[in-house]
Fold this protein.
Amino acid sequence: MADEFTWHQAIQHVLKSAAQPLHYTEITQRILAEGLRLTMGATPAATVAAQISDSIKKLGSKSPYVRVGKGIYALASSAAGESTQGANSERMGATGMDEAEEQYAIVTSFGMSWRRDWINWVQQPRLLGTQLGKQRSGATPVDFGQQRGIYLLYAGREVIYVGRTTDRGLGRRLYEHTNDRLSARWDGFSWFGLLPVSATGLLGELPQTYDASNLIPAFEAILLEALEPRQNRKRGDDLAAVEYIQVDDPEIRKKKAKAAIDAL
């Protein structure tokens, strides 16, 4: 692509080509897939949410966007009939809280089926990941070693353990499982994090309170994502979080290279 799209050009391009309103995380994934932006930052989904929320807050009825549901947006020009009236009422009432409510409702980030052998298991290991669609872009990975939340341990595809970590980082908690009774029983893990991720890829502080109305949908969404029950036709629609794809620790690559040289 000769010229990089601005954020608003990219968002409007995606919404215009979509047959229906989209969640801001889906808008972000399509921007990534189509290569509309070359510079994305560490948390492009948060940026997309902020761009849309800012436009709605500042421009009101003149904004090109309408909010048609929780985290779901469409172009004002494509809305019609009763949908337009409902969307306009949300647009006029939108505030700067939209981004925080959607991006950091409960779970902010998650990783599915990460590999144990991609981690350099020291006492404070790094858990490196990039957003879906960015793993080959050369973007700086985010270190989730200090993330807090819920995790699952796997033996193959079977979940053998579910745990939580609130008083120490996720990396440290997983490291402990490399030395306890489970040490030889697991080869992978998934995690759901509560700490917000800044635009520079740094983890924020754990919120002191949560809106009770967000808790039940978040619990359901985590279970749907983690267990993938066959009778559920949808994923965790209320999981307003960004998925991160695992990146192997460079220290692992160095060890493998050294082992290969030693073998020769």
